[in-house]
Automatic annotation (TrEMBL):
The keyword Oxidoreductase applies. SUPFAM superfamilies: NAD(P)-binding Rossmann-fold domains (SSF51735). It comes from Hymenobacter wooponensis. This is SDR family oxidoreductase. Keywords: Oxidoreductase. The keyword Oxidoreductase applies. PANTHER family: SHORT CHAIN DEHYDROGENASE, SHORT-CHAIN DEHYDROGENASE_REDUCTASE FAMILY PROTEIN. Belongs to the short-chain dehydrogenases/reductases (SDR) family.
Amino acid sequence: MTAVSTHTILITGASSGIGLATARYFVQRGWQVVATMRTPHKAPADLLTLANVLVLPLDVLDVASIEAAVAAALHAFGHLDVLFNNAGYALAGAFEALSPAQVQQQFNTNVYGVMNVTRAVLPHFRARRQGLILTTTSVGGHIAFPLYSVYNATKFAVEGFMEGLQYEVKQFNIQVRTIVPGTVRTDFTAAIEYVPAPAYDPYAQRVHDQTLASYAQAATPESVARVVFAAATRGGTSARVLAGSQPKLVYLLRWLLPHRVFASLLNRTNGGQ
């Protein structure tokens, strides 16, 4: 594959949603894109035919597959400028109903998977003395929501990890930023693993149904892709980039309102009493 651009981004979870929209957006702007996913044969047809796109298998829980993907990317394009940690899913339901195995899998994917991919790319960035690590977190990485306590915990963890990491790698001219979206209108909802809990119904089912319904008015993945591109190209020193008006409004309300008032508002918005 002949390199025609000086900029290359590696994206995890690029088969759909934010990852796919970001891959398309960056290609349209002349970037070389390494689009990784667990099952490349399920990639959209246009992604497989776009020029300067390399589609590779990568499972964030399989270190060997991560190392192989990074090696293949470097062989094809020579270098990486940006890593976009985007792969993840949501586990939902009353905490009491979630099994230890389900909780562990959520942390394995959303936290340890991010760490695995970041660890694999850091030596290359450090050797080049430049690089940018972008990671999709969530407004739920700062403000917790009902039925998403474990998912929120993983996003809180990733925010803390990236905040600490930025200090360590700054000496090598490596920047670290998180992309913080609210709800996004993608098939992410189909990937939500909802665990029913009869003891918590009808509250749990009502909250879950209200959460799914809210995605109808959510931001588009393309709008988030534009934020990702801006974060990758405009420089700046912000460690967190809010994607869209929803997280900005939630942050503003959380800052302005007393906790009791904010919690009551959040509960009513999510179908509570």
